[in-house]
Model the fold of this input.
Amino acid sequence: MSANILEVSNLTASIGGQQVTENVTFSVPATGVTALLGRNGVGKTSSIRGILGLIHRTGSVVLDGNEIGTLHTHRIVQRGVGYVPEDREVFAKLTVAENLRLAERDREPRRELVADLFPDLVARAGQQAGTLSGGQQQMVSLARALLNSNRLLLVDEPTKGLAPKIVGEVTQALATAAEIVPMLLVEQNLQVVRRLATRAIVLAGGRVVYTGGCAELLDDADLTRRYLGVSAEHGETA
Amino acid sequence: MSTVVLLLITGLGLGALYFLVASGLSLIYGLMGVLNFAHGSFLTLGAFMGWEVARRMGDGSWFTLVVSLLVGAVVGAVFAAATEFFLIRRLYDRHIEQVLVTVGLALATVALFEGIWGTDQIYVNGPAWLDGTTKVLGANIPNNRFLLILCAVLVLVGIVLFLKYTRYGLIIRAGVENRSMVTALGIDVRRAFTLVFAIGGAAAGLGGVLASHYTGYVSPHLGGSLLIFAFIVTVIGGLGSLTGAAIASVIVAVLQQFANFYFDGTGDFVVVLLLAVVLLVRPRGLMGVKA
Amino acid sequence: MNGILNRVFSRTTRGWWIGGALVVVMAILPLLNLSIPGVFPGPTYTPGTLQLLALAMLMSGLALSYHLLFGVAGMLSFGHALFFAAGAYGLGIVLKRFELELLPALVLVLVGGLVLANVLGAISLRVTGITFAMVTLAFAQAGSVWIRRNSNITGGDEGLSLTTTHIPDALVGVLNTRNLYWLSLAVLIVVFVLVMWFEKSQAGHVALATRENELRVRVLGVRPYAVRLITFVLASTLAVVVGMAYLLLQSGVTTRAASSDFTLTILVIVVLGGVGSRWGAVIGGVVYTLLDQRLTALAASEWITGLPDVLRIPLSEPLFLLGTLFILVVLFLPGGITGSAGRIASRRNRPATALPMEELR
Done:
């Protein structure tokens, strides 16, 4: 059992022939939340999608000691990787219950856990997912990843476009999730990052430019401004 | 009045036939993005095999008819699944090549059918009732139309139930919306692909046997001549929408019947005109999933 | 940058030399006594062989016009045969019904074809990708139906034969097949030059860019619709021209010319030759025509008829062999004939696999 749940080495991803990350190398420890930070367009989402094999990639990705860098997406996910994508990507024409049922992989999915964390979803089980609010859809997306006993969660901008109150609820749900499974979190909202993450990896121009403690990064106004484009108090990176 | 009834019901019958072919096309495109030109060949092979079996069993009885329908459906399903597995799967995500491969398959199989069974139409016999007519509201409706409508309704209901209540049905419905997210949930969509092809092939094969009783013959070009209408119906209904295909089938077929009767055989034109109008006003079709 | 320029320059010069030599060889072929048994029905001065070669050149011309549409601009059309048929049937009908000499008739049909291309193009190009393909298929189907239905004008299922009253004697009759051969060669050269000129022109580069990345083109202030329309009209008009020559060569035209089968055949030719390559289209046209003719003859030969049914039936159907070959090429040789012969990695010659998915959605 290594100390890192995920080790990414020289991940070079490309979309339509265009390179979007270059030799990205970092590790995600087996507990806690690691934040993946950087300005817009720097390659954070592409790194996540590259790890999952959703876009073309080369390099090595080792999950809990096993190489997954050449596997098909569904095989990677079956090995215990939960994905909460940017823009939620719930299936609009399916009901909430169907969205969740589709995501169940384990023989005994953690239905009670999900019901406890997201009582609102239980109430709306028969509602078409496309008619839910942004925050509710985010809950569905998160619930999907928590139903199975995953070894790692990849969470991409979970608070994007949500009202402050909902941001709080989502953050709370993420905090609860983080107690049972390690997480790689892409997030622009630095207050959320500060609350959840212990480690930080910063990307710039498709490459890693900082790895280290999250608090240390956010406490250093110069570093924060240089890498993330804005002061930590203001909340959102450029 | 009786003319209108006749046109309506025969239109429904023709629409049923279009639906049987279009349902597969719509699902296949919706889930996989593949425009399947070989779909007509699934129909033709189903029709021929159904005829061969019926011929040997002594056509004319209802039992033979049912058996030939089943044979047609099974043959269509197997042929379609094999096509997906051996040809389409290799070209995963290369949509233009997938279309091209189905074009090649269509060309090759029609030629093969001509080689095996000859180019002429072969006359088909069925239960005597099918050749007769029944009076409905003053109109004499050929009985085979009722059989067509019944089968199409059964297929529609069957597929809808399958989509709604089975796991693969759920996967297909989700996949039509967002294929990559389905794989990101750990599901191997490729099995759903083969299944969708098989379902489409079964419907087409069944439609083939029914078409042979509707037209009275089988020929290597049976599928191809229906395919163009199935394409039009699929586009008008909305690529990927089963209910859209059903509604469009009825509209197109009924319109065709009325135009043929009242406007001196211009049914084909009217259908093409309708397609052009729909595409220009609402390119994604009546109930299209893809924008 | 210099390296690329040098490569292109030398390739073009080499291309000119080869092309020129080929034209000369083809032009003097009717005067030679070359025989390729099994491929040509007779020596190269015989009408039979010249007819076959002329047909091959026209098919190449037609393939080139489709290459412009599909290979360069990425527009998958299933209705290209409609314009070919418009040329052939148009000229046939004009010659039959009006008292015009050949040249005015040609001009009339050409103008008519241009108008038709503009109208149909303007409508069809309001949509793209698969929807565009479907619209073109529907239009072609409508045309095909119209031809079959109006048999008093078009000859219906029996086809239309050429009315020769106003055609110069030099283009009529078996003995003058040579002249028709040279006419076909001229048509092919004209089509080739026009396609090449367009590809190298500003409009051509934009068309290619539109295929690759429509957004980028828009950002540059160019309207993709306009470029596509120009490409469509040019390609379709060229098809009309080839159609007219076809009528003269074959002394008639049948309903097959307007069928979707025929457009699919053209598509097969272009893919077999290699998508995106001019020479691929030419080679594809020649190979297809020769294969088609010779396979039919082969199928009737004793060698085949002696085989057991399982082998005989598939092998005696030329379209089966063509379809199977096509499938194999698409699966294993996506670059077609010219692709497999090895190409310089320039954008124009990228194999079909590189066509963006967006194009077909």
